[in-house]
Batch of 4 targets.
Target 1
Amino acid sequence: MNEYFQVNRTNDISSVRETIFWKPPFAGFLKISTDAAFCSRTNIAKLGTVCRDSDGNVFFCAVAKRTEVFFPLQAELMAISYGLDIAREKGLSSIQVESDALLAVHEIEKGFSSSCE
């Protein structure tokens, strides 16, 4: 562990990230937050999801491993789908979804808007 910190230690202020805090969903909604990690060498993705109400109470959290994943976008979309699948299995509705994968969110919004036309 010390080796990791020594290798990754930096004095370059441009590498410091802004801390982003979770924002609660609108009143009466639940928020599913998702993320994915993808390894192109093994074509394995790890998915994570958590569902909370506006007070931050956790309704569920889960992780999963998926094989035969070929792109980071595919992994992020799988994470979103995974969270929504669990919510549906639990009979939850009025869901907001949060993901740091802007391309995945854009693709979902694009597909949604074209299906509504």
Target 2
Amino acid sequence: NNRTWAPHTDRSGVGLTSVPKAVSPLRHCPALIPSVFPLFVAQLWFAFVNGFSGQILFERWCIGLYNVIFTALPPFTLGIFDRPCSQQNMLRFPQLYRITQNAEGFNTKVFWGHCINALIHSIILFWFPLKMLEHDSPFSDGHGNDYLFVGNMVYT
């Protein structure tokens, strides 16, 4: 092909992975930060509450399961099944890449906006159940609640 390609229409990288690459920052990153960050910050809030004693708020299997289900599976699922455009249309219309090239959908301002949103969610997720369970026992037999019970409330 003797045609001269501009940098934004370069054929390198066009293949099976090019279709998800065109929109992946718009779909994956903004969805991933608010879903992962609040539970990590909730554990930080718990560290302040228990005096950095080393206790964990969640069972270890909950943390592992959360990492697998909510962190690893969505990018794999979107990468395999999400096809908004055909490869031919991606080559024919390079303006489809303009949003990602100009960093309009995901930039520093958007990143910090999502971090602040996740921080607010972590405050709601941790402090509301902790204060709700602080003075009253949720069990009718009088048994008190422990940190793992609060952790399960925060987790769910």
Target 3
Amino acid sequence: MKILGSSRCIIIICLWVFFLSHFHSSAIVAVSQEEQYPWPKPISTVWGDAVSIPLSPTFKIVSANHRYLQLSVSRYNRIIHSEHWFPIFSSYSYITINSSTVSSLEELAVSVRDLQADLQHGVDESYTLTVPAGGVANLSAQTPWGAMRGLETFSQLVRRYNATSIYPLVFQRQVKIIDYPLYPHRGLVLDTARNFYPLRDILRTIRAMSYNKLNVFHWHITDSQSFPLELNSEPALAINGSYSPDMRYSSKDVKRIVKFGRNHGVRVIPEIDTPAHSGSWADAYPDIVTCVGTFWSDPSTSWSNRMASEPGAGQLNPLNPNTYKVVQNVIDDVASLFPDKFYHGGSDEVVPGCWKTDSNIQKFVADGGSLDQLLEKFISTTHPYITAHNKTAIYWEDVLLDDTVKVRPQFLPRETTILQTWNNGPNNTKLITAAGYRVIVSSADFYYLDCGHGGWVFIILTAAMEVGSATIAAMIGR
């Protein structure tokens, strides 16, 4: 089974207004010559009579008692009665109809077949929305999470009377919508290690995701730049590895993010990137991190001799037994904080030069060992730490496809491993699926929102060449 990602979040809240009709100031209803769709486009939309339906001033949404669905119902009741949006542009033509002939929509009744379904990968998110010419509309779903998607669709089709009058609110027109996601994994990745984001911004991001029916918040929490997550068993990592005491996430913060995600039908998957991208761990445990304090890439030498693929060097040492004690504590704590059945272990961009600075690794290689074997040792030891919590491990594609350091497939059990692509367009996706693995697609060629105008690493490397690596190293505190 393929698990595919989506980049639709970048056009959030912008497309709704262009799909819906404009009103004449003298009309309470309008007819469009073009079909109109909510965002994203449903699987099936069958429009009824081309007559907009006024909402009763006492319109309400009612549903079965479910903790998260009730919160969602309250939220959409508030959105529908307070948003008051109106299209700013339209190419549609109109006719008017006497308002006395139109019945009001009094209620949206929400029914759910399986109220016990958990928010995990593969949960049924289908729904059917039926809106008549007045009276009671119906939203039926297999699970509360599908009902949330239907509520979002319904809310997108409610708007104000016209450009100058808020009331009455109107529903677009009679319709029957049958919808379900094409992809069970529709995610957004946010990196809070290189740039710290306050809690309020993370919650705002999750809320925006729900407006687009995205369902996975992939939280890239740690990297070489900082370790902002407070952990009970390893408090030194955040104390020493975060940018400042104000730039950390407590367990209370994490619980709030997870709960907020569930309130909006969004899963939260943590990523703790190892064994590369781990320079921030050295501030607490310098003995388990190699190439600490080195500049990431000396412009006077070849690219193959770099310490890291981007600023911030440091990789966990697979030959140090203390490495595994710390990693296991981290995984245990993180697994307990996040209820999702997926755990992202990173494992991208392992750079030979960094490991080769360590004397024990130098001896290991001189005695006939390889860097591939080092990575295999790390993965084979830490993968069971993840699966022990009944979780599936996600790794970046590099762990299997990297040109210089990778593992053999036998070290990545297919039943407990998912690989995430980011290089080489669709080609790596084809290679991984051909090898029998499930795949999350997040290709930098298509889906990276920060790579539209050239690579930022190139800019920094050029600066280093111009002013000297020693100056750049001093600027970044290394």
Target 4
Amino acid sequence: MFLLPLQTWEGVRIVWVTGHSLLEALEADWFLVMPGGRRGPSRQQLSRSALPSLQTLVGGSCGNGTGLRNRNGSAISLSAPPITALITPEPVRHCRIPELPLDGSLLFEFLFFIYLLVALFIQYINIYKTVWWYPYNHPASCTSLNFHLIDYHLAAFITVMLARRLVWALISEASQVGATSVIHYMVRLVLLTLCGWVLCWTLVNLFRSHSVLNLLFLGYPFGVYVPLCCFHQDSRAQPLPADCDLIRNEVECLKADFNRRIKEVLFNSLFSAYYVAFLPLCFVKSTQYYDMRWSCEHLIMVWINAFVMLTTQLLPPKYCDLLHRSAAHLGKWQKLEHGSYSNAPQHIWSENTIWPQGVLVRRSRCLYKAVGPYNVAVPSDVSHARFYFLFHRPLRLLNLLILIEGSVVCYQLYSLLRSEKWNHTLSMALILFCNYYVLFKLLRDRIVLGRAYSYPLNNYGLKAH
């Protein structure tokens, strides 16, 4: 048995007796050797409150397996206790959200198709309107639209392209009702044959009456279209794993699924706006006058409304709650500047450790601070930080959609009050009816979910995950 210096503290050198544990050394008699070699005050003379804490002795210099060093610089084989033994992470509790009514796939596709038809009708009014209140001797006063200038083959082609999602929903619904295989194949054959015949008939007539340059606009979206065969609309919340690797793997799967849904929303909203509001402008004759600013504004409004409607359907509350739960278990790291928190305990980041909030870790010569209650994310992974930012607040996406749709409705109301032309008034009134329904659903979900997430967790009787 011999003495080893442990740590210098306020000019006093603490000597540890080898062969005993660190806690036994702290409880045993202290040998306080002054710089001059004289024996310092005894244990009775030294206040116990002045002793250094265990976190200072262990966490400050030997975190995550680093040992103490003697006077000669050689390391003493002293294993530091794990961080989970020093600080226990707070348990993550999740709220139970109620079952909110969600439109079925067939009903939503039907309503979405009706909205696109209304928007297409409004665009044709903006392009081919007439001054129908003029005297009857005026050549264009007998009708409200210049019907002789409308290309009905183009209108039929656009209608079939807009109905593709509804047709696919009908085929999927027929395969799920439990009907026999013969009836299922007959329904699929009839629908596909009808759509194919209409497309061929319209394309043949369009080839006869229009140039090749105009015809290129018909299939332009298909050049950037990537089929999404699996929409994953029936994702259900499942118990999240406690293992760090399983949590990170689940986050990767959810991130890929979320990106796939967003790509579907972006493509279908742009596809709808292209065929509803942009393609009719490409086939307008050069002698035909129309309000370009109002038509482009209608194009933007159709795209925004289609984006909000598709996002609401493909990202339901249950799915957003699943993303929120996964983000709560993932956590986040905040990168700190060099030199900050130099006196605080720092640890080497480990991928198999659940780090509690406020812990400082080092990885790749950078210092990070744990932000979430549970932290298993990779500190240098930007995608993990982005995932936590988007979903750690469960109502962030819903609030963003309400802000977008509310801004559109307010702008349309303002345009309706200032409109002086009959086509502007009619188009704003029809589009507002559709937007009111979408805004109502968003506000209903926001009120119900806001109450659910603000309800005290102790009243649920839930167990921590």
